[in-house]
Specification:
Belongs to the DNA photolyase family. With 460 residues, the chain is of the alpha/beta class. The chain has 3 domains: 128 residues, Rossmann fold, CATH 3.40.50; 107 residues, Alpha Horseshoe (Serine Threonine Protein Phosphatase 5, Tetratricopeptide repeat), CATH 1.25.40; 158 residues, DNA Cyclobutane Dipyrimidine Photolyase, subunit A, domain 3 (Orthogonal Bundle), CATH 1.10.579. It is 48% helix and 6% strand. It has 20 helices and 5 strands. The protein has a 5-stranded parallel beta sheet with strand order 3-2-1-4-5, sandwiched between helices. Helix 15 runs antiparallel to helix 16. The structure holds flavin-adenine dinucleotide. The site of flavin-adenine dinucleotide has 27 residues, from helix 9, helix 11, helix 14 and helix 16.
């Protein structure tokens, strides 16, 4: 007997329920990845993620070959390719991870439709892409949690399965042909500091993190210059690491750092259960507001300055330049950059979210869109009118200005006390920096926002 395993956002061999189930049910399996033009049409095929994906696929293929198998890559509409592969090898089952996004749900439906009547069963598996399945914990009177804290309490009580070891052997039928893997190197537009993709690189990073990083996480989480977060997000995004395994291993490790880390993984699941229940939250306000956001037509130059990291606010510019260089941005930087765009410039969160998706290697429809909504105050933040002040936040989370100096070389030699407010330098010195003056006054931005929202919350 033969079974097909369709890999999607789960590019790994460790802790992979669909692969384990297929191997248990059949003598031979076809590990399949389909390059679906539908995904490309949605604009997700950007250089940083394409490069990282190619490395994930190469690594997955190498892991499977090490076990006697190989990865089969095909291009075309996913249901057409899966049906063709199943027919070629006479497969009776297709296994895949249960999806969360609207796209993933439609994919499942299309698969079922294409395979119905051909005697091929589609089996989806939970807790592959998230640690706790969306919908597994719900409040008394709703289909999902809209607030993180009560969700996290319930999430923490869920029993997680034991991680499944990688299989020892994988036998793939010879008849099924695939195409060449996408090239790993030589793409244009890839950020120079991009992390290496793939499960092997992810597992190495995880081992280093558990050995030398996680214990200091609770203290160092917001220290921008210290760069003390795990940077595991790209591996989680492509499923090169399993969230179940991460939570289990962090809990086994124990301590305050591990607890804080597990909490962040809880945030990841929280957003997944919101989007699973409300797929349109990827484009529409989760909570409807009367916002009259400014768009490209009126705020074209301000948006361009924000994108290019020349707003004149050192923390915002440092964060935006880090993203351009590394395809990744520190969480505190993301919060500040997004707050500045939406609440100081009063620009539509969708414009900012699109730009992040164009560059972030971990950029994903769930975490990106819902974090943007959280910051814009249209999402799940229980204090939707809060505004982050980049100067106050800079002094707090980058007190010596080391993060700013790393990414904004124009400010390298500015004394600490001016590094977050270079406009306070004597005019001659300021002009010599070659660094822009602030795009708008913070007070003006705040006044516009308060007026628009009709609120008077103090900035933080
Ligand atoms: P760590 O601090 O080491 O955290 C561990 C893991 O927890 C992360 O890898 C991530 O999977 C998860 N996590 C942490 N914080 C969050 C959060 N707020 N929401 C969801 N999951 C979280 N994360 C993405 O994975 N993809 C995105 O596209 C994305 N866009 C964002 C956009 C904005 C405006 C903001 C404010 C946050 C966004 N985040 C996104 C969340 C967070 O910034 C990143 O997950 C984190 O910075 C990744 O770095 P890390 O792996 O070192 O995180």
């Amino acid at each position: 007997t033969v079974a097909v395993v369709l890999f999607t956002a789960d590019l790994r061999v460790h802790d992979h329920p669909p692969l384990a189930a297929a191997l248990a049910a059949a003598d031979q399996v076809v590990p399949l990845f389909v390059r679906d033009p539908g995904v490309h049409a949605l604009g997700f095929d950007v250089p940083n993620r394409a490069a990282f994906l190619a490395q994930c696929l190469a690594d997955l293929d190498a892991s499977l070959r090490g076990r006697g198998g190989r990865l089969v890559v095909r291009s075309g509409p996913v249901e057409r390719e899966v049906a063709a592969v199943a027919a070629e090898c006479g497969a009776g089952e297709v296994h895949l991870a249960a999806g969360v996004t609207g796209y993933a749900h439609r994919r499942e439906e299309r698969l079922r439709e294409a395979l119905r009547g051909r005697g091929v069963e589609v089996r989806t598996h939970d807790a592959v892409i998230t640690a706790v399945t969306p919908g597994a914990v719900t409040p008394a009177k709703a289909d999902h949690f809209a607030v993180f804290s009560p969700y996290f309490r319930r999430w923490s009580q869920e029993r997680l399965r034991d991680p499944i070891p990688a299989p020892r052997a994988v036998r793939v039928p010879d008849v099924v042909r695939g195409e060449a893997l996408p090239p790993r190197d030589g793409r244009e537009g890839v950020s120079p500091g991009l992390l290496p993709g793939g499960e092997s690189a992810g597992r190495e990073r995880l081992a280093d993190w558990l050995r030398a990083g996680i214990d200091a996480y609770d203290e160092g989480q917001d220290d921008l210059a210290g760069d003390a977060t795990s940077r595991l997000s790209p591996y989680l995004h492509f499923g090169a690491l399993s969230p179940v395994e991460l939570v289990r291993r962090a809990r086994d490790h124990g301590g305050a750092g591990a607890e804080a880390f597990v909490r962040q993984l809880g945030w990841r699941d929280f957003h997944h259960q919101v989007l699973a229940a409300r797929p349109d939250a990827s484009v529409r306000d989760y909570r409807t507001r009367e916002d009259h956001w400014r768009g490209e037509e009126v705020a074209h130059e301000e948006i361009a300055a924000w994108r290019e990291g020349r707003t004149g606010y050192p923390m915002v510019d440092a964060a935006m330049r880090q993203m351009a260089h590394e395809g990744w941005m520190h969480n505190r930087g993301r919060l500040l950059a997004a707050s500045f765009l939406t609440k100081t410039l009063y620009v539509d969160w969708r414009i900012g979210a699109r730009h992040f998706l164009d560059l972030l290697v971990d950029g994903d429809i769930v975490n990106n869109q819902l974090n943007w909504q959280w910051v814009a105050g249209t999402g799940t933040d229980t204090r939707p009118h809060r505004v982050l002040n980049p100067v106050v936040q800079g002094k707090r989370f980058d007190p010596r200005g080391a993060y700013v100096r790393r990414w904004v070389p124009e400010l390298r030699d500015v004394p600490d006390r001016f590094v977050h407010e270079p406009w306070r330098l004597p005019e001659e010195e300021r002009a010599a920096l070659g660094y822009p003056a602030p795009l708008v006054g913070l007070a003006d931005g705040l006044a516009r926002f308060r007026h628009a929202r009709g609120r008077d919350d103090r900035p933080q």
